[in-house]
Design goal:
The structure is a single chain. 54% of the residues lie in helices and 13% in strands. Helix 5 crosses helix 7, helix 7 packs across helix 15 and helix 15 packs antiparallel against helix 16. Helix 11 links the parallel strand 6 and strand 7. It is an alpha/beta fold and 432 residues long. It contains 18 helices and 10 strands.
């Protein structure tokens, strides 16, 4: 059994396709169960974020599993599998382990080092545990990935590159954000909107200049209670939009919320407006970019900015952490595979010693207790010495050459003298 990951991300697929395959929590759970319907797959977990959808599975074969998982993603997007395949990436076994560790460490994020991905990896693990789609293998893998992500943030300042997509978006719109008296309208009241409100206030924006609109007014009002911002009803969205200088939107809607006509009416008279679209699927129509005096910052813009970033020393250090941890994890996994064999070997040796000791005691009943104890100890020492080398070296053997013969394996396990082996193999070789 080996780990396999099949997915799409901002690095492999256009935003339009990511919008089609994006998953809410219920859809992610459904996909993880559908993956288990594939005969070769025994465990599954799904990571779903605004810029990636990845299915991690424990599978006993590569071919077939990849095709079936790609088909599940194609079914989700409503497109033909052949259309989605060019954008799908696949990692198997060691490469799959390394990929998840990079993801958790923020090295594969749109914004290098962003810390939100840790929570999203944790959510994927918790969903899998709750739904019983995650077993021993993926649980160990994801737990280690979370530890690596935490270690990267603890030992470096990688998260200072941009702690979240929200921070990066606000940095990209820096002039509009810091303009005196700027008014902010936030559409939506989910996680991204919560982060936007919190980040704006941390940047020194007065809560009185922030309005939150949501289809469910109560959700918007909860932000009022937590931060002192203003809540407006969804029906008043256009009125507030006409008075806003910055629109930040992440509604979770399945279609466009702000088309060119709507934004055009709000900016009548060429009133400048900065639009930050953090939604996937996107809330803002592409045509809005063509409007005069309207600046649009969305996931595509942020991806382009991230691609242009130089590699910082912290990123290099985190990469080194990931590479080291991949080796450690794989070695531990290999050693775990032989543990049952080692235990069985020791149990067999113990049983043999007990059986032979009992036989000797019945045949040598005239021996005194001290002598019998010495015989028992001697037999245990012989057994321990015989199995010591195999139990130590079997863990080295699992990482040895794949074409190792049985004879080579025995010689390695028992640390046999090569000269002695040769003498037995060719007893006449030393004749003169």
């Amino acid at each position: 059994m080996s780990v396999l990951v099949v997915g799409l991300s901002h690095k492999s697929a256009p935003v339009d396709l990511l919008e089609q395959v994006s998953l809410d929590t219920d859809a992610a759970v459904k996909l993880s169960h559908q993956a288990l319907d594939v005969p070769a797959i025994s465990e599954s977990a799904v990571i779903s974020t605004c810029n990636r959808v990845e299915v991690y599975v424990e599978a006993d074969r590569f071919h077939g599993s990849v095709e079936d998982l790609a088909q599940l993603l194609a079914d989700r997007s409503g497109t033909d599998r052949d259309a989605i395949l060019p954008h799908v990436y696949v990692h198997y076994d060691e490469a799959a382990v390394a990929h998840l560790f990079r993801v958790a460490a923020g090295l594969d994020s749109m914004i290098l080092g962003e810390s939100q991905i840790l929570g999203q990896v944790r959510d994927a693990l918790h969903r899998g545990q709750a739904e019983s789609t995650v077993g021993t293998s993926l649980n160990a893998l994801f737990q280690q990935a979370l530890r690596i992500g935490k270690r990267g943030h603890a030992e470096t300042d990688i998260d200072q590159l941009a702690p979240s997509i929200v921070t990066a978006a606000l940095d990209a719109a820096n002039g509009a954000i810091d303009a005196p008296g700027a008014r902010f309208l936030i559409a939506g009241a989910g996680t991204m909107s919560l982060l936007a409100v919190r980040t704006l206030i941390e940047r020194g924006i007065e809560p009185a200049r922030i309005w939150v609109a949501n289809r469910t007014y109560q959700r918007a009002f909860e932000l009022v209670a937590g931060f002192g911002v203003s809540a407006v009803r969804w029906e008043s969205l256009d009125v507030e939009l006409a008075a806003a200088d910055v629109l930040i939107t992440s509604t979770g809607a399945t279609g466009v919320v702000f088309d060119a006509d709507r934004i055009g009416r709000a900016t009548a008279g060429d009133r400048p407006l900065t639009v930050i679209d953090l939604a996937l699927p996107r809330d803002v129509a592409p045509e809005v970019r063509d409007l005069a005096h309207v600046s649009v910052i969305d996931l595509e813009v942020l991806a382009a900015r991230a691609a242009a970033d130089s590699v910082a020393a912290d990123v290099i250090q985190v990469r080194e952490i990931v590479e080291s941890e991949v080796g450690t994890f794989l070695a531990a996994r290999q050693q775990a595979k032989v543990t049952p064999t080692v235990v069985a070997l020791r149990s067999m040796a113990t049983e043999v010693v007990s059986s032979e000791t009992a036989r000797l005691e019945s045949r040598l009943s005239g021996l005194d207790g001290a002598t019998l104890d010495e015989v028992r100890r001697a037999m245990r020492r012989v057994a321990e010495k015989l199995i010591h080398q195999p139990t130590v070296r079997v863990k080295e053997l699992v990482e040895g050459p794949e074409n190792l013969t049985y004879a080579d394996a025995l010689a390695h396990l028992f640390r046999l003298d090569p000269a002695a082996v040769s003498a037995v193999t060719d007893p006449g070789g030393d004749a003169s």
